[in-house]
Amino acid sequence: MTPIWRARAAYTFASLLVVGGATVAIAPQASAGGDGNKVHNCFGRYYNTDWDQRCSGSGEGYAGTYVSEAKCSLEPDNEESHYRGKGSKATYNGHDCDWSVTGVQTWFYQ
Questions:
Q1: pTM assigned to the model
Q2: Structural domain contains residue 89
Q3: How far apart, in whole angstroms, are the C-alpha atoms of residue 72 and residue 27?
Q4: Is residue 52 one of the residues assigned to a domain?
Q5: Which member of 25, 39, 78, 87 has the lowest number of beta carbons within 10 Å of its beta carbon?
Q6: What is the span of the domain harbouring residue 90?
Q7: What is the pLDDT of residue 18?
Q8: What is the predicted pLDDT for the residue at 21?
Q9: Which residues contact 28 (CB under 8 A, 6 or more apart)?
Q10: Mean pLDDT for each consecutive 10-residue tract of the chain (110 residues)?
Q11: Alpha carbon 108 to chain centroid distance?
């Protein structure tokens, strides 16, 4: 290997590192992706990889168990199940997806 070839290889490698670093530096921040279906004022809200189970307005309308399932890309879905008393406005953080959340479905059981 000649010194010129080594210098060119080192320059190319360094350039790739800089481009790769710049790409990581400008990656977008997590922003609201949307809300899933509402069941008695409770629903799942999802972002890029994060999601929550929450209740809006006057809180949850009926006491019971609320199950929310986040649909994850390229991995198994994540589920949160919580018993809520009537009027609950608690927010529960769901287990993050590694790649992305594409939606959240919520069910109610008494």
A1: 0.68
A2: yes
A3: 20
A4: yes
A5: 25
A6: 34-109
A7: 47
A8: 52
A9: 48
A10: 50 50 45 84 94 91 94 92 94 93 94
A11: 22
